Amino acid sequence: CSRPQKVCLCPFLPVHPLKVSTCLYIIQHPAEESRVLRTVPLLAACLPPDKCKILVGRRFNEERYPELATVCRSPSTLILYPGAEATNLEEVAVMSSSPSVMIIIDGTWSQAKDIFYKNSVFRLPKQVQLKPSISSQYVIRTQPTNTCLSTLECAAVALSIMEKNKSIQETILHPLQALCSFQLQHGAQIHHSKEHLLKNGLYDKPMPKNKRKLRRMELLVNNVKI
């Protein structure tokens, strides 16, 4: 896990990489590389190297990333990104019997949106989303809403659906739970979502002056999907 011995997470990782037929392509915003508490390294440690490929960058054109472009053009490739055009993953998984490729964008919501909309190659695969049925267990990092998930959590849920194996989700989430437990024991605080803080009058930061950001916060308070 590459962490100090005192907070080593190796005992919480699977003894052997999980056997899955689905291949993940993690498109990681460069800013994520410098974050101390990243979840993608834990995800990669749970899967075989050929089933979890990480590409770092903001722009992905076909000339520079021909392999990625080929993957995006394949009919068996899905991209996990919520929106009006997205189909619930459960519906797609029922009809899918062959090994698939899933693309997941790793970054803040604004970073993920920037990558998705400024790279036309990511609008070639079928767009899918997860049902907002679980709350994030990544409690040491603030999420926009109660049902926003970390990249590792998204991958865990998605793989369990695609592979039709609930235990995959439990196995991948195990090191994340241990990470949060270690951090809380060493002084970290539980972070409620921005949605929770706003609704309960606990948001203690200055309200944004930018009208677009202010509008997004109003939508969070009023339970409007953003």
From TrEMBL:
Q: What is the lineage of its organism?
A: Eukaryota, Metazoa, Chordata, Craniata, Vertebrata
The protein's name in its UniProt record: tRNA-uridine aminocarboxypropyltransferase
Q: What is its EC number?
A: 2.5.1.25
Q: Does the keyword Cytoplasm apply?
A: no
Which reaction(s) does its UniProt entry say it catalyses?
a uridine in tRNA + S-adenosyl-L-methionine = a 3-[(3S)-3-amino-3-carboxypropyl]uridine in tRNA + S-methyl-5'-thioadenosine + H(+)
Query: GO BP, one example?
Result: tRNA processing
Q: Tell me which residues make up the DTW domain.
A: 1-188
The entry assigns this protein to a family as follows: Belongs to the TDD superfamily. DTWD2 family.
Xref: InterPro entries = DTW, DTWD2/TAPT
Q: Which GO terms describe its molecular function?
A: tRNA-uridine aminocarboxypropyltransferase activity
The family database entries (Pfam families) matched by this protein are listed as: DTW
- Keyword terms: S-adenosyl-L-methionine, Transferase, tRNA processing
Q: Which PANTHER family match?
A: TRNA-URIDINE AMINOCARBOXYPROPYLTRANSFERASE 2
* Keyword Lipid biosynthesis on entry: no
